[in-house]
Each structure stands twice: as C-alpha cells, then as structure tokens.
Amino acid sequence: MIKQQLPKIKKLSKKRIGRGPGTGKGKTSGRGTKGQKARGKVTLTHPHFEGGQRPLFKRLPYRRGKGNNKAGKKPLVIKLAALNVLPEGATVDIDSLVKYKIVKADDAKFYGVKILGDGNLTKTLKINVPISKRAAEKISKPSKLNK
Asked: String of b and e for 43-69 (b: at least 16 CB within 10 Å)?
C-alpha cells in the first residue's frame, strides 16, 4: 500500500499586539521605546519619504489645472534639406521617414512629425505630414526661394 503525503494547510494566525503584558507583545507592542518608529504610522517605508528633509513635492510650486499634465506633445522637427535623401517623386509620410532613417519609428509614432522650411529642397515630393508655411512656400515655388 502506497502512503500518500498531503500538504500541510494549517497557517499561523496573525500575532495580535497590544493586548496586555501576558501576551509578550503588550505595552509598546514590539516597537521598543520612543523614537520615530515607535509612533503612529511608520512612514519610513513610504516611497516619497526623504529621511526627514522637506519632500520634493512640497519644495515644488503649485501648478494649476486638473492633473496639470495636459501640455501638448511637440512634434519632431525635420528640416526641408533632410528630405533630399528621399528619391524623386516619393511620398513623404512617417513610414518613409522611418525607412530612410530620418526619424526613429517609436518617436515618430508618439510625437508626430512636422517639416520646417530650413534649407533647400532639390526634388519634387508628395508630402503627407504637417508642414510649416515657410516650407510650403519653398515647395510650391522652388525656383524663386531655393536659389
């Protein structure tokens, strides 16, 4: 006959502190005497506790607004001259910019992309991303502004 071993399921109950001297955890309830750790809620383990110095969140100024994290994410800026890497007649979108290593894929997806009119464009391209007014002028009238 095979003897089967069953797992032990008995668990010790939580030790009740502060229940009189006969329990061994009375009076100071196992906290020793006096000092910061003996009193109230022990906040030394709190993630923002800084050893008693003025906490960072109290050193910083108040910010208005609910959550105050509504500041818009600014797009990645690309100079017009950087688009000369693309082949003639190509479509400029996030995928093509990532393909030709002008921007990183995760940054472009998160922040977006905007083309600014810095430098000269020597090729004709189809542009499907946001563009500044100056860059739009340079693209539409290349002979006048690009010289």
From this structure: eeeeeeeeeeeeeeeeeeeeeeeeeee
Convert the pLDDT of each residue in 85-129 to its tens digit.
999 889 999 999 999 999 999 999 989 999 998 888 888 889 999
Residues of the domain holding 133:
76-145
Domain for residue 66, yes or no? no
The residue among 135, 131, 102, 101 whose CA lies nearest residue 118 is 135
Is the pLDDT assigned to residue 145 strictly greater than 60? no
Tell me whether residue 118 is in a domain.
yes
Q: Count the domains in the chain.
A: 1
